[in-house]
Specification:
The complex is a heterodimer. By secondary structure, chain A is mainly alpha-helical. Chain A has one domain. Helix content of chain A is 71%, strand content 3%. Chain A contains 22 helices and 2 strands. In chain A, strands 1-2 form a two-stranded antiparallel ribbon. In chain A, helix 1 packs antiparallel against helix 4, helix 11 packs antiparallel against helix 14 and helix 16 runs antiparallel to helix 17. Chain A is globular. The two termini of chain A are 39 Å apart. Chain B is an all-alpha fold. Chain B has one domain. In chain B, a hairpin with a 4-residue loop joins strand 1 and strand 2. The longest helix of chain B is centred in the middle third of the chain and has 32 residues. Chain B is globular and about 65 Å long. Classes of the chains: A mainly alpha, B mainly alpha. At the A-B interface, strand 1, helix 5, helix 6 and helix 7 of A face helix 16, helix 17 and helix 19 of B.
Chain lengths: 536, 498
């Protein structure tokens, strides 16, 4: 019941807000903040009550009620460790986002209602254990997000929001066909567990199903070359929309791979894994290169998301315990640090009403606290040791390097250049915006961080540091889910090898003796990698 | 000498009530000395509700009138749906006609007669009874389309509808005669559509007859390539009539189509070949494609909704197709019924909002160009926030976005299509429905994200309209979040089909 409470508390809050008068913006701000804070408090109960041991049941806080029994659809919810972490990310980000959106002056009531409805849909997506329920929450995200971008966005918002909606909607409807096909071939159930247990389809059909799911998820991630909606949506969205989009919505795609595409269709997933990993690597490098030429801060951060999510996808596709754990951890990191970047860019935007990098320069003297926060967040984003970003990227790269996917070491090596490029574009951005001489007179009269803004950004920075120094509490819940996925994929791999004895094993970590050999691989960028041997 | 049993009368009660309502309205209109017609919409709603209740009360009586009709759950569900559509359309019509000073008793009387035809059609299992029911329905609707008789567009719409409708009726009748010729049982006691078709198994004459009947019905539901009348007629007819037509005619015609389909594939081996299924599959594919593709460039929301109604007919054809497999019949028919119900509320609601804001022009017969342009909706969320919200809900439901009734309806229909093995058609359908999201969303874009033009009038305010919209919005949302009562009912109704 606690989980259902966490899911529907924001929606209930939104319904109450709908009854409050629109002419009282302060009331709506306060109410939305209160509701989201209460949701966070309730979700702490989930965090405290979650048993992260391997012996604990896979899905906890389970609730299974009939919803549309005549069509075989149930209201089945529950959390594994990964879903728990993402739910926590959602509930923690939302109050921060709402606090940051106190500056929205137009149609405050509708804005806050949209955010609260969005929160319910996001939590529901992570908690759903019924395929149709999952699809309902997944699609329900679109409407509030569409309104957030389209109503409160900047100049080109109509183009951006329609593109966002159509791109994601068109990619998702095929997933609905796939879900219906699964229903017809798993004994007539939409339940996730039943589908995973007893899906019986031909290899060709499994490939088609996997691709239908993967398309929906890949657009959401977004993976190269399906990413083109993201820079537009991010740039035109209001700050709150960008933060939610980067912080949580993109994770729905990677979560979808982790929860649905891989375990439901393991054989097809193994076959397509090299292609997806290759696209992830291309995305890493391409996103980073695109960052180098952006004039617009938000667009730059958006492309950096393409690059960072490429890392997450690479870690997932490695199918090693390290890679998967790193991928999950990097989902959280990206939510925190890119969310924080969008918040800070939003603060600058509110002061200067421009996102162009060239309009800034030397503002560190005027806004030292914002500059400090920005530098800390930048360091986290580029994965400096001691910040959360390091833990995630390190695990992903070492996990990929040690994996058994064909060409995995090449993938890790190329991906590692993304780390360097990441440092280049982020530090260059900091330099152009905050350091140097003040070239623009308008930049001389900027107020520094206000108390409200401090309350917005300090929790983010605290998370960055804590997750960088003490990652264990955040890694532990994910472990059982990761181990189960590796086992499941190993079983599928074994099955395929039994059919085709010439096939080398492709899941899990290579034995240390083999892993030790290519430690002298070319490329200075791989300097961190020999440490992987000790890490294990 | 055949006698009429109590069951026969009970089964006929909904039709009789609706016809009685029509007569009552005609009579009171004759004796009316004042211009006060406030009671008429209320009376219509009352008769519609009574007829719906009578259909529910009659329940599952089985074959009546010696097998010429059947009062099963399927018929009851369709009757309730069309009666609900009538009630909503009457409330919308009262406010729309009232604002134009054109409210007359004939409007409601004709709508009631049309609904009587529809509910008879839902029960018909004999082709001649079905033909009579279709004519009762169609003649009333032709007249309704011409209700604003001074305008050029309504006249054109009504004339076009009448000519093409008469043509389709002729096809239907010719097909019927071929079927009777093939089976040789027409007019004899105990002859029913079901029995006839099964008896004529394998006869080429039967296949030709069924194909003609299919063509005639495809005209009525607006399936491609028999759809060309739809956009003009929908655009030219008074908006409440369009709403009623889109929902009611579709529901009734699909009821007969489903019965023909079931009769053709009654489970007896060799009763028909794959030809008929392929025909319906092709129709469905064309209808989904053309309806959605042509809806995209429309500037007039009314015309866009006309093309979208074609697209919805395509999705419904998928359910009809699946109903051809006896094992999946209950699934497919319950999907069809749920879809009809959800389309009825969402489409009537959408037309109602459109009717409230469309340009009235300056006098009777005036037809301002672009009366229903999407520009008329610009900034509606600021001028009339509740109206805009209702329209947004209807658009999302028609687009099939969860959590609305339209999503559940699409889910059920596509589910049965995939279970029936026509997953390629389902993929085509779902991709075209993604295209649908584009034009439905454009309406939302205009309402919420575009500033209003200067001096836009606020449109119609009317308590009746508000009530109708409230009912429709609540129905769309409740059916989207908790569809079980209705989908369970649809399933029970589909299981009872005879």
């Amino acid at each position: 019941m606690l989980l259902a409470t966490v899911i529907f508390l924001p929606l209930a809050g939104a319904l109450v807000a709908a009854l409050l008068p629109a002419g009282e913006p302060a009331q709506h701000r306060g109410w939305a903040l209160f509701v989201s804070a209460a949701t966070f408090a309730a979700s702490l109960g989930l965090w405290a009550g979650f048993d992260a041991s391997m012996a604990a049941p896979e899905f906890q806080f389970e609730l299974n009620l009939p919803w549309i029994p005549s069509a075989g659809i149930g209201f089945h919810i529950g959390l594994d460790g990964v879903a728990l972490l993402l739910v926590m990310l959602t509930t923690a980000l939302t109050p921060v986002v709402i606090l940051s959106a106190f500056t929205v002056g137009e149609r405050v009531k509708e804005f806050m209602i949209s955010l609260l409805v969005l929160e319910t849909a996001m939590i529901g997506t992570f908690a759903a254990l019924d395929l149709v329920l999952f699809y309902v929450f997944w699609e329900a995200i679109l409407v509030p997000m569409y309104l957030l971008i389209g109503v409160w966005g900047s100049v080109n918002r109509l183009y951006a929001t329609v593109k966002f909606f159509l791109y994601t909607f068109a990619a998702s409807v095929l997933m609905l066909v796939a879900i219906l096909y699964v229903f017809a071939h798993d004994g007539g159930s939409f339940d996730y567990l039943a589908a995973r247990q007893s899906l019986q389809v031909t290899p060709g059909a499994q490939t088609a199903l996997f691709l239908a799911f993967a398309l929906a998820f890949a657009v959401k991630v977004p993976m190269f070359p399906l990413h083109t909606w993201l820079p537009d949506a991010h740039t035109e969205a209001p700050t709150a929309g960008s933060v939610i989009l980067a912080g949580v919505l993109l994770k729905m795609g990677t979560f979808g791979f982790f929860r649905y595409a891989l375990p439901l269709f393991p054989d097809a997933a193994l076959a397509w894994r090299p292609a997806i990993a290759a696209l992830a690597v291309v995305g890493i490098v391409y996103g980073a290169l695109m960052c180098l030429v952006q004039q617009d801060m938000k667009r730059l951060v958006a492309y950096s998301s393409v690059s960072h999510l490429g890392f997450v996808m690479l870690g997932l596709m490695a199918l090693t315990a390290e890679g998967l754990t790193g991928g999950v951890y990097q989902m959280l990191n990206h939510g925190v640090s890119t969310g924080a970047l969008f918040l800070l860019v939003g603060m600058l935007y509110e002061r200067r009403h421009t996102r162009l990098i060239s309009e800034y320069g030397g503002v560190a003297k005027q806004v030292p606290w914002i500059a400090t926060a920005f530098v800390v967040v930048t360091l986290s984003s580029i994965g400096l040791p001691g910040t959360n970003g390091f833990v995630g990227e390190f695990l992903i790269l070492s996990g990929t390097w040690l994996g058994r996917m064909p060409g995995t070491q090449l993938a890790a090596a190329v991906a590692a250049t993304g780390v360097i490029l990441g440092a280049v574009y982020m530090l260059w951005l900091v330099e152009r915006v905050f350091y140097g001489k003040i070239g623009n007179e308008e930049n001389r009269r900027l107020p520094d961080l206000s108390l409200r803004e401090a309350f917005v950004i300090v929790p983010m920075i605290a998370l960055i540091v804590v997750m960088g120094l003490v990652p264990q509490p955040f890694l532990a819940p994910a472990r059982p889910a990761v181990e189960r996925l590796v086992t499941r994929m190993q079983e599928a791999d074994r099955r395929l090898r039994a059919r085709d004895p010439a096939r080398p094993p492709s899941v899990g970590t290579q034995p240390p003796a083999v892993a030790g050999l290519p430690a002298a691989a070319p490329g200075g960028a791989l300097a961190a990698l020999p440490a992987a041997g000790e890490g294990r | 000498m055949p006698t009429v049993s109590a069951n026969d009368l009970l089964a006929l009660a909904p039709v009789a009530l609706l016809a009685l309502g029509g007569i009552a309205l005609l009579l009171t209109e004759v004796f009316l000395t004042t211009g006060r017609r406030g009671y008429q919409a209320g009376l219509t709603v009352a008769f519609a509700v009574a007829a719906g209740a009578a259909a529910l009360a009659a329940g599952n009586l089985g074959p009546v009138f010696r097998g010429q009709a059947t009062a099963d759950g399927f018929a009851a569900f369709v009757t309730v749906t069309v009666c609900g559509g009538l009630a909503l359309a009457a409330m919308v019509g009262a406010s729309w006609l009232g604002a134009r000073d054109a409210e007359r008793g004939e409007f409601y009387a004709l709508a009631l007669f049309a609904t009587a035809g529809m509910s008879l059609l839902a029960m018909a299992t004999d082709l001649l009874v079905a033909f009579i029911a279709i004519e009762v329905m169609s003649l009333s609707i032709y007249a309704l389309a011409a209700f604003m008789r001074r305008g050029r567009k309504p006249a054109e719409a009504a004339f076009k509808y009448f000519i093409l409708g008469a043509f389709s009726s002729a096809l239907l009748l010719y097909g019927t005669s071929l079927v009777y010729g093939a089976t040789g049982t027409g007019g004899r006691p105990g002859s029913t559509l079901l029995a006839d078709v099964a008896r004529g198994a394998g006869s080429p004459l039967l296949v030709a007859g069924l194909a003609l009947i299919l063509a005639g019905l495809a005209f009525k539901v607006g399936a491609v390539p028999f759809h060309v009348w739809t956009p003009d007629v929908y655009e030219g007819a008074p908006t409440p009539v369009t709403a009623f037509m889109a929902a009611g005619v579709k529901a009734a015609a699909f009821a007969l189509l489903a019965r023909v389909m079931m009769a053709t594939y009654a489970g007896t081996a060799g009763s028909a070949d794959g030809f008929f299924l392929q025909l319906i599959g092709t129709l469905a594919l064309l209808t989904m494609l053309v309806g959605n593709l042509f809806a995209v460039p429309q500037r007039s929301v009314k015309r866009m909704l006309a093309y979208s109604s074609i697209a919805h007919a395509g999705y419904l054809l998928l359910a009809v197709l699946a109903a051809g497999q006896p094992a999946l019949r209950a699934d497919a028919l319950s999907g069809l019924l749920f879809y009809l119900a959800s389309y009825t509320v969402a489409a009537i609601g959408a037309f109602a909002v459109l009717g409230a804001v469309e340009d009235r022009g300056t006098g009777p017969g005036a037809e301002p160009p672009g009366a229903c342009d999407v520009d008329r909706l610009a900034g509606l969320s600021r001028r009339r926030p509740l109206l805009a919200f209702a329209m947004a809900v209807f658009m999302l439901s028609l687009a099939g976005v969860p959590p609305t009734a339209g999503f559940v309806a699409k889910l059920l229909v596509f589910k049965s299509a995939i279970a029936a093995g026509s997953w390629a058609l389902a993929v085509a359908g779902i991709l075209t429905s993604a295209l649908g999201a584009y034009y439905y969303l454009r309406v939302v874009v205009f309402m919420y994200m575009r500033p209003a033009a200067e001096g836009e009038p606020e449109g119609i305010f009317s308590p009746l309209l508000s009530v109708a919209l409230l009912i429709a919005v609540v129905a769309v949302v409740v059916l989207g979040i908790g569809p079980e009562p209705l989908s369970g009912f649809a399933r029970a109704a589909a299981a009872m089909v005879r």
